[in-house]
Amino acid sequence: MKYGLCNLSIVPLRLEASEASEMVTQVLYGETFKILEERKKWSRIRLHFDNYEGWIDNKQFVFTSEEDHQELLTKTPKLVSDLVGMLTTEENQLLALPMGCNVAAAPYLNHIAEGAFVSKKFPKQHIIQTALLYMNAPYLWGGKTPFGIDCSGFTQMCYKMNGYKLLRDASQQATQGEPLSFIEESEPGDLAFFDNAEGNIIHVGIIMEDNYIIHAHGKVRIDRLDHTGIFNYEKRQHTHKLRVIKRVV
């Protein structure tokens, strides 16, 4: 079995083995994965962090042995906590890293990382502080960075930065944690999920104090949350229908 390590800042993971295929998520610097299928130009992989699968360009990662892969998994995550961090490559070139990249693997790649990093689990209320760092980040399907992010990528990264693990998609995240009966029972950092007319969960956001919610919709923004769903003051209407509130932490 072969394994891989992302050695670039932000790499698209695609639905099919084609540059024109849909980006289903992103692989950030330092993420490790298993190679499920290898072709001349593409490999189908399974990310270690959330078991997400897709196709990655073979030019955009480095292969690792099983021994090295297992050793990398033992390293404590060291996540970039600035909006942008920097590292110096073996060729003495600079590489910009968005918030959330894991530089624990930098020595393995002969890279030197600079900036602020986090490596511990924070109290639940700190999730909101992290979420506010993403304010106004543009919505991007499959995105996981302050330069483009989707709703579940946003919640996953906010939890990850604080030492907690969420699955990748909103429908997957909705299977985690314990359901709450009322908004009044919720705490800042809990997750609210929203469904479409068919009953499929299609959106997620992070609950704040005083019935506010921060979520990625067009951009990362703050709106009101009530028993119906998300109320957008700019549109003067509800934009999402509330399905369930979950407490994961």
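(the above was protein one; protein two follows)
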Amino acid sequence: MDWTHYRFRTLWALPAPLPTVYEVLERAEEYPRWWPQIREVTKVDDTTGVIRIRSVLPYDITFTARAVRRDPVAGVLEIVMSGDLDGWARWTLTADAVGTLARYDQVVDVNKPLLRRLAVPGRPLFRANHRLMMSAGRRGLVAHLEAV
């Protein structure tokens, strides 16, 4: 098993219509306004940005994200990442009876040297850190959507 390889899936039930959720998620440069763990997004061009995140554990992760799919009809946003994380992430949105179901899939390899050295003993903490970050992201997005 490669202890530096991670696969995540998170589901968010959101109380807003799919087009509204898509518009918000498409504007990654605005994530720091509502997602506390996304500390900084620096736009490089129309499809690329540098993102710095930090959750509960005392380390930053910085990576370059490049959009590879933006499909509002299918409700899909996908990026590839390079830097402290190499891999991809995808939002898949579907309408449901009360709003939108947002599925977040991420497959990454960790390159940050400290996290690689701590890969085996730190894995449960890293996974918990990711869950906390995603939970805070959902809370922030719901509050943001209610204010829109």
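Reviewer note on protein two: The beta strands are 5-14, 38-43, 48-53, 61-71, 76-83, 85-96, 99-110.
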